[in-house]
Amino acid sequence: MPAIVSAKDVVKIYDGGFEALKGVSLDIEQGEILALLGPNGAGKTTLISVICGMVNATSGKITVGGHDIVDDFRAARRLIGLVPQEIALEPFEKVINSVRFSRGLFGKPRDDAHIEHILRQLSLWDKKDARVKELSGGMKRRVLIAKALSHEPRVLFLDEPTAGVDVELRKDMWDIVRGLRADGVTIILTTHYIEEAEAIADRVGVINGGEILLVSDKAELMTQMGRKQLRIDLHEPVGKVPEALASYDLEIGPDGRSLIYTYDTKGERTGITALLGDLAAEGLVLKDVSTSQSSLEDIFVGLVEGAA
Description:
Layout: E1 5-13, E2 19-28, E3 33-37, H1 44-51, E4 59-64, E5 67-68, H2 73-78, E6 80-83, H3 95-105, H4 112-121, H5 137-149, E7 155-159, H6 167-182, E8 186-190, H7 194-200, E9 203-208, E10 211-217, H8 218-225, E11 228-234, E12 251-252, E13 258-263, H9 272-281, E14 286-293, H10 296-307
Parallel strand pairs: 3-8, 3-9, 6-7, 7-8
Antiparallel strand pairs: 1-2, 1-4, 4-5, 9-10, 11-13, 11-14, 12-13
Helix pairs in contact: 3-5
Domain ABC transporter: 5-234
GO molecular function, one term: ATP binding
Organism: Litoreibacter arenae DSM 19593
């Protein structure tokens, strides 16, 4: 199945010579949730803006649903919903009229039942006749989401959709995202809450300095690049790692009552059996042992720092 969004060698150079995107190539499959991670200034918003037709690429080619975003702009843009970072709404317009207007912009016929469904999903139905300026910041962000969904897009971009919002909206947002994916909608999100990406994404892309560092299935990424740690709790604290154990590169826990051993799960041997034997030979008495897997955030930080 061809990718629903395909970017090939996309470059964006702003006036003054700043190169925000450096030959980005990315294929996004229909019905997946792709989390695009990167530090501030990495190029996430620029890439989304180019795909959505809000910023012109310097060079490269992008298609959405097989439609070139330049040569067949209207058809491509009709497939896209966008929830931007910034809240930009008409302050004196009623909520329901603002959402209806967005649907009409894409040439969709009036569908009050669909608009009501969206507003109820986002807990906005009781605010439908309120003017936007009367809403809280969290409610305004809900209106942005409703407007993005009003024309029933097949590709939804969420650019930091839950930044600075309440826990309730965050939960509502991800419930809606899961429902959209079940209906075959493709979702691309950027977020500073990496635990959210870890919980909801199918694939993860990491961008830094205008370049895609990696795109991978989330589970596969965590298996291939994740590290495991063995925490060994001791009966008595230690001041330093015995010289006989130096080859294991152990870390001492903050209280001196634990040793941390990091190992590669892909290796033929983890070294754990030998370590436990050497600990006993040094007279260290174990109280407990436990393991933990590195998180997506650990992997992300490692990738970005490695590329710096």
